[in-house]
Prior knowledge:
- This protein is α/β, with parallel strands linked by helices.
- It has a domain at 338-483: Orthogonal Bundle (Isoleucyl-tRNA Synthetase, Domain 1), CATH 1.10.730.
- Helices cover 49% and strands 15% of the residues.
- The chain contains 18 helices and 15 strands.
- It has helices spanning 18-36, 52-60, 65-82, 96-111, 164-173, 181-190, 223-228, 230-233, 243-250, 262-275, 308-327, 338-367, 380-401, 405-426, 428-434, 436-457, 462-471, 480-483; strands at residues 3-11, 41-48, 89-92, 115-125, 130-132, 149-158, 178-179, 198-199, 201-203, 212-213, 216-221, 253-258, 283-287, 290-291, 334-335.
- The protein has a 6-stranded parallel sheet with strand order 3-2-1-12-13-7, with helices on both faces. A 4-stranded antiparallel sheet has the order 5-4-6-8.
- The longest helix has 30 residues, at 338-367.
- The model has no long low-confidence stretch (mean pLDDT 96).
- Residues 8-11, 19-20, 22-23, 48, 227-228, 257-258, 260-261, 289-290, 297-299 line the site of ligand ME8.
- Ligand ME8 binds next to strand 1, helix 1, helix 7 and strand 12.
Amino acid sequence: MKFYVTTPIYYVNDIPHIGHAYTTVIADVLTRYHRMFGEESYFLTGVDEHGQKVQKAAEARGKDPQTHCDEMVLNFQNVWKELTIAPDVFMRTTFPYHKKVVQDCLQQLFDCGDIYIKEYEGWYSVSEEIFYTEKDLVNGKSPAGKEVTLVKEKNYFFKMSKYQDRLLKYIHDNPEFIAPENKKNETLGFLSKPLEDLCISRPKSRLSWGIELPFDKEYVTYVWFDALLNYTSAIGLKQQGRELEFQNKWAAAVHLIGKDILITHTVYWPTMLMALNLPLPRKIFAHGWWLTANNSKMSKSEGQVVKPLDMKDIVGVDGLRYFLTRDIHFGNDAQFSQDLVINRVNVELANNLGNLLSRTTQLLHKYFDGKIPERSSNLESSKEISKLALQTSTRVREDIYNYSPNMAVGHVVELLTKTNQCLDQEAPWKKAKENLAEAGETLLTVMEVLRISAILLHPVMPSKMNELLERIGFREKVTFEEAQKWFGLTTGSTVIKADPLFPRIQTENK
Length: 510
Ligand code: ME8
């Protein structure tokens, strides 16, 4: 296995919004790229069903937690399906096999003395499902500004502090482990203070919706201890007959997360894995946030969320996937608004890509009977464009390896812009009258750019790019090798003239 990518598993306290769609679309896009590069890949997403937050949401709907989860999970699965997101496994933490893995891990840590019981007092944030100490609080709230309540009770603790030095050394020895760099530094900052042990239980008297501790029936486990383990239970940890599968996939694990859940992933999770004698994942990448118009994080608890399917209805599935991949530098924050999405889709898909296709198709129908012209590369402009196209393929692959899908798409946009300019300069509609061969060469050059661009953008917009390839008569399998060669279209094959591939979207103000 070369690439095993995971998204966070989302709380089923509400329906998914653009923020959830973002991580999940990027994971899907990266998986499709790696597969196109010929690499065996695996993609996990799912839902986080236990804990106080979900229990409260179920109570508010007057449902028992399991019924609530069974209903809510469909919202996630349906939205992902509508967005052509195709995970290999969709995890639910209420799956019996997952529960068993969590209990086996708890037992292992209890048996080796890494879990102990003590009286505890702390401040709990339900919205983050995190305990804070008095000194962590800022103006009586969690550092992220969430409400906290004082909790005093006997609980079980995981000896997280025992692994602090080992984790620090690991992060220093493996500079690629946490990305981007500023998130690695944030983790190191967190680790510069003494690490507390982690409270990993909740008495059933306070929270019943969770996985029971195998060594104490009065308690359920902490939702994060349960949730993080999904990355390993999903691929076979502690399951007879799946040992090799686990080893193979786990060595290729890449966790994509939002920066809101950095420390749980870069501190809690690695120390848990160390205690369980398991290797750490290959990479943890914490991306930025989509912000609302007033620059606050788009979130379920803050309100002001945009529903992915509402956006899909306006710009189409592939338009939305394109925007999410293209508009944010992976790692940074950016504002989300309907106008920004429409503008991006109009400028880059309707105008740049769409016009290039329709102009060329029309000219081919006018002067070449709608057929792909003879192969030739005599014009300086064609040579330059073909060189740039092949460089673009290489750059796209490099950018994907560097977790920069937005840059990868940006390179294709640049190629399309240059090709539009070349078409304007060569003006085959004028040349056709005196030098049909040269006009044909330019049109073929554009068609080849469209073929390569459609392959390179296929992971981002699978259905639109299939349609594009069909229109230009490309019948081969979509592989990266095809994007690394010039001349993949067959001379004489028919080009389809049809409605715009990306119709321009009208906005209310225009
Ligand atoms: O934290 N911008 O689940 P959750 C970008 N169950 N991404 C965003 C976002 C935004 N405005 N809002 C949410 C949990 N996300 C836990 C995870 S994993 C073992 C357990 C995305 O439903 C982003 O990926 O609160 C973020 O980390 C995740 O949704 C949080 O989802």
